[in-house]
């Protein structure tokens, strides 16, 4: 296997690339800068907007892991994903794992962060390249950001912009990496624990309450962590593991957007926050999961929430 990871210095692509190298695979990473790749990853530089650079990055590649960067302009995303699909077809990629970086609502929305990824899914699946689509919920690692870790350390408050009663199967980047490798290497028959469906590829890949749903050319897997918890259950897990009282507070979305605007700029922050606004209004089931069914489909063990909490350097993260 000669594996290309797109976005290999990113939070998600980096975790996947690192784990692939640790598992003994030959890995190259496509980024614009080529800097900061995990050890053992061969750099390939190029912009996803540049078709010839993307084609060159795929030379000799047999498998690919794709997560798109934080870009939500539909025409730009279309260029990126068509360049990826055309290059994957040209070199005869045997399997591509596409990480949508969020779950997909079962109905179309006006949220670009969802709909551009839904469109990207359809381009890959329609290209004919064997595609396994992995759809994660929110990441546990988001809780390591200073704007979460700070109030956690100093106020005993776990403040996050999701409703307190929302069931969430928080996933770690480490478990994303484990799941991605399984999605890359296991047979589709093993991955498809759910009965085949004939869901139209251009339509939403409906979870149907199942872990996997076969489309004519692809397979979609909703990912998640070992436990599905509400905000207060998550805070309770922190309280028990850290040995001090922690309570959950659903962060005000305007406040969240103001903070994110400083980091990402108004346009990108607005697009990210629009996913949280949609979830607050319509997404009660979006982040749910049957972890046992996922573990069976991928033949993996997900990390217990308490083990993930215990492993993070919370005091350091709060600084
Ligand atoms: N579900 C969640 O909880 C969650 C959390 C965070 C993010 N997300 C989503 O995840 C996606 C971003 O993933 P991430 O956080 O891993 O991204 P990230 O940390 O910003 O990394 C982006 C990666 O892509 C590369 N890249 C950026 N633009 C590129 C281009 N035009 N051509 C080639 N490479 C490019 C970057 O390297 P260079 O800069 O060197 O090119 C980097 O390796 C977004 O869709 C975001 O909304 C979801």
TrEMBL record:
All residue ranges annotated as the NmrA-like domain in the record: 2-187
NADP listed as a keyword: yes
Pfam families: NmrA
TM annotation in the entry: none
Keyword annotations from UniProtKB, A to Z: NADP
UniProt keyword Aminoacyl-tRNA synthetase, yes or no: no
Family that this chain belongs to: Belongs to the NmrA-type oxidoreductase family.
Protein name in the entry: Uncharacterized protein YbjT (DUF2867 family)
Organism of this sequence: Nonomuraea dietziae
């Amino acid at each position: 296997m000669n594996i290309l990871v797109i976005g290999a210095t990113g939070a998600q692509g980096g975790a996947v690339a690192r784990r692939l190298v640790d598992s003994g695979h030959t890995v190259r990473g496509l980024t614009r800068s080529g800097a900061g790749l995990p050890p053992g990853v061969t750099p390939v530089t190029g912009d996803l907007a540049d078709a010839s650079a993307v084609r060159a990055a795929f030379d000799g590649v047999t498998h690919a892991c794709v997560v798109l960067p934080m870009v939500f302009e539909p025409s730009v995303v279309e260029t990126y994903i068509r360049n990826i699909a055309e290059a994957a077809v040209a070199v005869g990629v045997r399997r591509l794992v596409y990480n949508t970086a969020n779950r997909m609502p079962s109905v179309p929305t006006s949220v670009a962060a969802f709909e551009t990824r839904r469109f990207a899914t359809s381009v890959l699946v329609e290209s004919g390249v064997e595609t396994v689509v992995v759809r994660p919920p929110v990441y546990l690692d988001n809780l390591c950001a200073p704007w979460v870790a700070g109030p956690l350390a100093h106020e005993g408050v776990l403040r996050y912009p999701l409703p307190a009663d929302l069931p969430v199967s928080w996933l770690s980047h480490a478990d994303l990496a484990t799941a991605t490798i399984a999605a890359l290497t296991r047979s589709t028959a093993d991955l498809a624990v759910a009965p085949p469906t004939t869901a139209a590829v251009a339509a939403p890949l409906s979870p149907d309450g199942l872990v996997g749903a076969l489309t004519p050319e692809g397979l979609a897997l909703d990912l998640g962590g070992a436990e599905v918890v509400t905000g207060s259950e998550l805070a309770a897990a922190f309280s028990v593991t850290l040995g001090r009282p922690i309570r959950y507070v659903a962060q005000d979305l305007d406040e969240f957007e103001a903070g994110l605007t400083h980091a990402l700029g108004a346009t990108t922050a607005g697009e990210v926050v629009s996913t949280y606004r949609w979830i607050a209004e319509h997404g009660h089931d979006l982040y749910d999961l049957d972890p046992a069914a996922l573990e069976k489909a991928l033949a993996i063990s997900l990390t217990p929430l308490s083990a993930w909490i215990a492993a993070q350097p919370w005091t350091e993260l709060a600084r």
